[in-house]
Amino acid sequence: MRKRPDLTIGVLSDTHLPYRLASLPPIIYNIFRDVDYILHAGDVDDITHLNLLEKIAPLYAVRGNVHLQDLSFGGKNLPLEVRLTLANHHIVVTHGHRPGLMGWLFKAPELIAAAKSGAGGRVVNEQIVNRLYARYAEADVVIFGHTHAPYAKRMGGTLFFNPGSVAPSQHQMTSVGLLHLWPQKVEVQIIPLDHLCHRINRLKRWVSSAQ
Predict the structure, then answer these.
(1) CATH code of domain 7-210
(2) Global pTM?
């Protein structure tokens, strides 16, 4: 029988509350109902919209980037990074963007490279991971967001994990993640929200029609 993880952590990013999403999809509370911690990798905009998550488990969130179209600062009062030691693993949470003016200078080239490759967020994810590895090579797990594209890759001894975006964006599914920790092992899950919400809505319509 497989041993249960010592800790399970709910991971989400790019909720863009309340500018692009009025509230979290209710399915997230069900997915995270038994987690030990919740980590938010930036672009929450207004942290008070995550109050219900704090009732499930301790919540840690980091700052995202500035969005002129939303007139938002990505949660300007939040830290740029959070470092935790959980189940004997050193975990870093960061949004993944380049803070300040550098973020604006590099955002356009990243988007152009992604468009040319045809691989979209994967290319930008890999660019971010290469940069974060140089900074956090000592970490066991680095959680980031920013690209709205889910991603998981191990580089050296570090696992890089982007749970994807909760707020809808063009050509990207919405998703959250689960991080399972044992003292000697780490596993991640990417959980698509679009598919789950579609199944739930279909079930509601079926129940309603049967009444």
Answers:
(1) 3.60.21.10
(2) 0.83
